[in-house]
Amino acid sequence: MTKSSTTSPRLVACRAVQFVADKGLNSERALTVAGINNLNDVRDISFARSVCLGTLRWYHQQEVLLSLLLDKPLQNKNRDLHFLLLTALFQLSKTDIARHGVVSETVNLVHALKKKWAKGLVNGVLRSYLRQAAALEIKLKKSPVADTSHPDWLLKLLQTAWPYQWRDITEENNKQAPMSLRVNTLRTSRDEYLDMLGSVNIDASCSPISASAIILKSPCSIDKLPGFDKGLVSIQDVAPQLAAGFLDLQNNQHVLDACAAPGGKAAHIMEASAGKVKLTALELDPQRLLRITDNMQRLGHKVEIIEGDASSPESWSSGQKYDRILLDAPCSGSGVIRRHPDIKLLRRASDIKQLADQQLRFLHALWPLLKDNGKLLYATCSILPQENENVIHCFLSEEETAKERELDVNYGQSRQHGLQILPGEHQMDGFFYACLQKN
Ligand SMILES: C[S@@+](CC[C@H](N)C(=O)[O-])C[C@H]1O[C@@H](n2cnc3c(N)ncnc32)[C@H](O)[C@@H]1O
After folding, report:
1. Which residues are near ligand 1 (CB < 6 Å)?
2. Closest C-alpha to ligand 1, atom 6
3. Options 14, 381, 394, 435, the catalytic residue
4. Stretch 250-278: mean pLDDT
5. Is the pLDDT of residue 2 over 60?
6. Residues 308, 355: contact at Cβ < 8 Å?
7. Residues 6 or more apart from 110 whose CB is under 8 A from it?
8. pTM for the full model?
9. 162 CA to centre of ligand 1 in angstroms
10. Is residue 52 annotated as part of the catalytic site, yes or no?
């Protein structure tokens, strides 16, 4: 029997997708507003989340699929049915959930939406999909937006930037990212922690790219991770674990992490330097700043935390200069779409120029805070040159005391400026790094 409206994970998922698509909420917020916390069973919670994220991942494809199955689009007052159908089509076309279960549960949900009249419509659309699935798949292949499930503007940017890799990139973006850990090497070693994981039957391996990183064979909930509360480990992809090494930290240096929340890279800086640097973590958003405090407390790191705007140091800085600055700039997130598929719905083409302008402004504002011979590491989780090498190019042409230092590693792609990691390489997220030194 279908559960009541407040407790149906399918309904939570479908409402959450609607909140992302129509109200612009991010998926976590959308799931909360849709009532995921009212679900009692952990399996229901995980099912609601996976149907929501899966539908968002395949949203651009499912929209085309639904349009092929409907004679005419549903009216605005029936947007709820539209999203009910999208989530059901995702389950039918991309998962191995029993088909009769998907159809009957979805049809029954029209009662919860108080649209009993739509029973025949929902049943008809889903059965029509099942009858014509193979032919519809062929039609979807003809549209690049449907085939790759990416918005047209982003697809065009990717095709231009990565003419040989864009297909692989879109395929990676549609996969589920692995769960990776960063071992707090001040509290345990990577080998010891791997043994601890083995003792609770969590299959994992060491990343060859970062000395602190472990990649789990399949994701698990945080409470299953040994010693998480005691700060032995944090959840972090391997690519962001490269920042600490690229900063070339030396004892007693003063480091500024200019966009620090939730504090993943800041904590790693403390771990990689064995706590021998002084770290100032700056963050604009007071809510996110609290997450830095929590993380540092759990991991046992002492850092200075300042609420302030990286683009106007005069409002928070006492004139202190730093040996190292990490600018992990706000960006489109185009390198982490596999973790946050809602990015494909929430971002707009016009955001990219605005972000690039802001990134350049941050560089200019922070540069005077760097000591002579100091290094600034610029990082984004974007794979768009507009936010990466082009920003660095502009900055270098405008700031004559800045020189680029090559990041000499045997992974990623060396670009005209900086190093680009594409999603999926050594199981990493897409990331960009460029190291600038002051002469
Ligand atoms: C990419 S995230 C940083 C991730 C972080 N470095 C980590 O590794 O956990 C960018 C952060 O910059 C913050 N931010 C945005 N605008 C800012 C500004 N003008 N000044 C300082 N921080 C800002 C955002 O709130 C966000 O927390």
Report:
1. 240, 259-265, 282-285, 288, 309-311, 328, 330
2. 260
3. 381
4. 97
5. no
6. no
7. 81, 84, 116, 117, 118, 119, 122
8. 0.96
9. 27
10. no
Mutate which of 236, 242, 259, 311 to test ligand 1's pocket (most atoms within 8 Å of Cβ)? Answer: 259
pLDDT of 7 reads 74
Chain position carrying tokens 């400026």: 417
Q: Would you say 304 and 266 are in contact if contact means Cβ atoms under 8 Å apart?
A: no
CA distance 296 to 11: 37
* Ligand 1 centroid – CA 261 distance (Å): 6
Candidates 356, 422, 410; CA nearest to 383 is: 422
From the CA of 330, how far away is ligand 1's center (Å)?
6
Structural element, H or E, at residue 173: helix 166-173
Q: How far apart are CA 329 and CA 93, in angstroms?
A: 37
Scan for tokens 């698509």, then name that residue: 21
DSSP-assigned letters across all residues of 232-287: SEEE--TGGGGHHHHTT--TT-EEEESS-TT-HHHHHHHHHTTT-SEEEEEES-HH
CA distance 120 to 76: 19
Q: Chain centroid to CA 273: how far?
A: 26
> What's the pLDDT tens digit per position in 147-172?
999 999 999 999 999 999 999 999 99
Query: Chain centroid to CA 173: how far?
Result: 10
Q: Which domains does the chain have, with CATH numbers?
A: 5-143 (1.10.940.10), 180-235 (3.30.70.1170), 239-438 (3.40.50.150)
Residue pair 168/148 in contact (Cβ under 8 Å)? The answer is no
State the pairing for strand pair 322-328/370-380: parallel
Which whole number is the average pLDDT over 201-227? 97
In this structure, what token pair is assigned to residue 66? 């639904």
**CA 341 – CA 152 distance, rounded (Å):** 15
234, 263 contact by CB (below 8 A) = no
Rounded Cα–Cα distance for residues 91 and 62 (Å): 10
Residue bearing the CA closest to ligand 1, atom 25: 285
Is the pLDDT assigned to residue 84 strictly greater than 70? yes
Res. 186: pLDDT tops 70: yes
